Amino acid sequence: MTNHPLLRSGLRLSVLAISALLCMPMAQAQTAAAYPNKPIKLIVPFPAGGGGDTLARLVMLRAAKELGQPIVVENLGGAGGNVGSAAAAKAPADGYTLLYGTNGTLAINHTIYKAPGFSPTKDFDPVTQLTSIAAMVVVRPGLPVNSMAELTQMLKANPGKYTFGSAGNGTTSHLAGEIYKSSAGLAVVHIPYRGGAQAMADLVGGQIDMMIEVMPSAASQARAGRIKPLAVSTAKRAPGWPDVPTMAESGLKGFDVSAWDAIVVPASTPRPIIDKLNAAIRTALTDPELRAQLSARGTEVAPSTPEELTQHINRNLTLWGDAVKRSGASVD
Are 199 and 116 in contact (CB under 8 A)? Predict the structure, then answer.
């Protein structure tokens, strides 16, 4: 029976298939050994000169030195980061196109936009988280509270009387405020702005009562005494602000909200290439000068393994998704 032509053909095909599978790890290892042998493109899905663009360039400039090839930034802004992210999702999975992602593009947008144009979990493979950025609860100078407990008590006693500003519907500052409202059972009026700078200017001027804004925007105004800092949003106190308690320490147990960013690559990128990128970026994040630059921006280095980043993205899809649903925010 084994001499039958069809059986012999089937055996040959099976042997070839098994050989191909056995050769795959070797081929991937050879690909990684040669990688990178040309410049790498980093898509930043935001306009040049913004906070995310600046941070991405700071980190990846040093990672490029570790990889031995330049990393060329391409800014593809639009639709809250969706345009550039969707373009990156369609790029070849060869390690020569990277995407700078944030909690906005990789978590919030997946719920707030009806059709973001990509899936953060299906279209990308994670490389590493870069940083974690705390938010700070800040209030206008004349508001008669000096602690988070006093603020919460005042807001509970006066439903609908006070306002909180944000950089716009669906932004980190908006949804952090919604999470606070839900956690404490508050009724506070949301005032969306077209950008955090406008909202902060009105907070300083007393036109709105409070914000939960990311540290790079809030810290400088708080240090200058133009607004009052009451708490930080993360589980740990923020570096450089040891006297400002966390929201969890202030009575909101389990409250832990932060902005963050990461590097991802198109799905099916060979794992040895991902590991090489991970090692290079993590080494870059140990650079003392870089860490000092990031710390001055109120940003904490937070490197991760690809698996840890996967878990982080999944947690944030739930966290921010729930906040979006509670707020009713949407973008067509």
Answer: no
Tokens representing 295 are 């710390």
Q: What is the pLDDT of residues 64-112, one digit of tens each?
A: 999 999 999 999 998 889 999 999 999 999 999 999 999 999 999 999 9
Residues 6+ apart with CB under 8 A from 20: none
Which long-range contacts link 207-210 to residues 24+ away (Cβ below 8 Å)? Answer: 208/140, 208/163, 208/164, 208/165, 209/139, 209/140, 209/143, 209/162, 209/163, 209/164, 210/137, 210/138, 210/139, 210/140, 210/143, 210/151, 210/162, 210/163, 210/164, 210/165
Tell me the per-residue pLDDT of 36-46, one tens digit each, with 9 for 90 and over.
999 999 999 98
Q: Domains of the chain (ranges plus CATH)?
A: 37-132+259-327 (3.40.190.150), 134-232 (3.40.190.10)
